[in-house]
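Dear colleague,

Thank you for sharing your sequence with our group. We've completed the structure prediction you requested, and as agreed, I am returning the results in plain text so they can be pasted directly into your records. Please verify that the sequence below matches your submission; if there's any discrepancy, let me know and we will rerun it promptly.
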Amino acid sequence: MHSRSLSAVAAVLALVTLGAASPAFAHSGGVAAGGFVTGFLHPILGWDHVIAMVAVGLWGAFLGKPAIWLLPVTFPLVMALGGMLGAVGVPLPGIETGIAASGLVIGLAVLFAARPPLPVAAVIVAVFAIFHGHAHGTEMPGAVSPLAFAGGFVIGTGLLHLCGIGFGMLTRSRVGTFAVRGAGGVIAALGAGFLTGAL
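Please find the predicted structure tokens below.
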């Protein structure tokens, strides 16, 4: 179990380090030419999105039931609402700042083992989901199939949450808990870097 935990930590840190080496934003424009596949790749190819989605899964797993499913369900549902706002052109200030701050805040919550009441955690996740959804939604009208694009980015987001939940399950052991909190710290550091670039 110990070696498995360390291997998982090494894999996540390597993945995060690669993302930090060449940070890419999933909402740089011009990527919504396709349908489902483009939408699916949209959150996965933007490291500012990836760290936040994984952090939501990590935090949910860390908090345990019912947060382990409530937070990862809340995020894509509210993100879809944000996507609709972006698609119809409703302005939302500070998109980049909100997206970058999500990784920092949720990463810190994991690092410091924050255990707020479940409604508070859900509201935090929902607020950040609006920003992520809006960023996706602004590019949706340019897609060949906007509905397929929307379905793709919701499913892509869900899979990233599952990655976070899977890694977060390591909290069942002492070493695993340390690894999960450490991953939260790495995510927070990357979020701080993205936030610095967004300001």
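Summary note from our side: DSSP finds eight helices and no strands in the chain.

Kind regards,
the structure core
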